[in-house]
Amino acid sequence: MTQPALDPEELSLWQAKIRIANQHNIFCHCQQCQREWVASAAEPCSCGSQLVETIACWQFPDD
Q: Sign of the C-alpha dihedral, residues 5, 2, 60, 49?
């Protein structure tokens, strides 16, 4: 059994929630010193490195 597609209003609401989650929950990993942190935006590492990988936290499973 397949789920029905979202109607335009539901899709808009879902997209807005994803934008908010992306703005406030960014997992950062420094590829130079291996430091990890969560920030509201991509930022350089405290070691000064610009080699920072970023992933939106909502992409991680809750368990």
A: negative
Distance CA 41, CA 57 (A): 12
- Taking alpha carbons only, the member of 45, 40, 15 closest to residue 29 is 45
**What's the mean pLDDT when you consider all of the chain?**
85
Task: Report the distance separating Cα 3 and Cα 5, nearest Å.
Answer: 6
Side-chain-side CA neighbours of 36 within 13 Å: the count stands at: 3
Burial pattern 16-54, b for ≥16 Cβ within 10 A else e, equals eeeeeebeebbbbebeeeeeeeeeeeeeebeeeeeebee
**pLDDT at site 32:** 97
